[in-house]
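Intended use. Records like the one below are meant for learning the mapping from a protein sequence to its folded structure. Do not use them to infer anything beyond what is encoded.
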Amino acid sequence: MEAREGKKKMLATLVGCNYAGTPYELQGCINDVHAMRAVLLDRFGFAPGDVTVLTDDDRGRGAAGVRRALSDMVARAAPGDVLFFHFSGHGTLVPPVSGRPRRGHGDRNDEAIVPCDFNLITDVDFRELVDRVPAGATFTMVSDSCHSGGLIDQEKEQIGPTAAADPDLHAHAAGRFLPYAAVLGHLSGTSGMAASHHITDHLVALFGADASAKFHLHRHDHDGNSSGASCTEGAGILLSGCQTDETSADVAGDDVAAVGGRACGAFSAALQAVLAAHLAPMSNREVVRRAREVLSKQGFQQHPCLYSSDANADAPFLGQQETKAKSN
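Structure written out for the chain above:
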């Protein structure tokens, strides 16, 4: 349903991957996105029809489905609209391939999320997506996954790496992290290619044009270059569950940090706790700072980060105004 004339649209895509039946199964990711949907409707006034929820309970919901939902959301947007993407699931780091040029960080590992079909969506893909957001609109991304700091390529770090906190009190919590070797082994078993090949070869062989833009050197930004430079100033806002070199915790239902006895992501739960405790509008910077405080008190060794323009760092989270959102 489109917003009434003169009223900004608020659109969301929420993705939760539990990877059921695989060696990499998580418990709280689907719970995370259903809880976030309730927050968007009750706190921020999103219309139910404007919130798309994708989980691996839905057959065929791999990377192509996620990309399509995000592209459709951006295509619907107009200046002033609020776009929101929440991902709960595994993250990974992609190492550079020796002697082969690619987009992104050059000789550094690159951040990626892992949809249920293992077709990675990378920091370059999110950069390209944000670059298509209309001027004056915003794209806020919450990623409750490991190594999620920097998931929008070239976005400015506002809150980033800090000194280590107290010893981890939740060492038993599972990490939402798939080591590169595990991703490579899984893809090798599907592609039939030897695991000695770089992940680029497996992904392109398996998914073709649906593989990440990072692995297709012939694909360019819409301004005609392949540098990954931002074309939409100030549109992207990333709230990451942890730093690039950290893991994000998946909390079992019997953990003290669980919400209502239900498994969850530690960062997703902290974010929802912050929003529930502070009904007045908060800036993106304040939301991340308070989420860090919640996780620190609970003993988690992960530090949420904020990447955005200076203006958006101090802008209200999801554009909330002083008037109370209407519940749906």
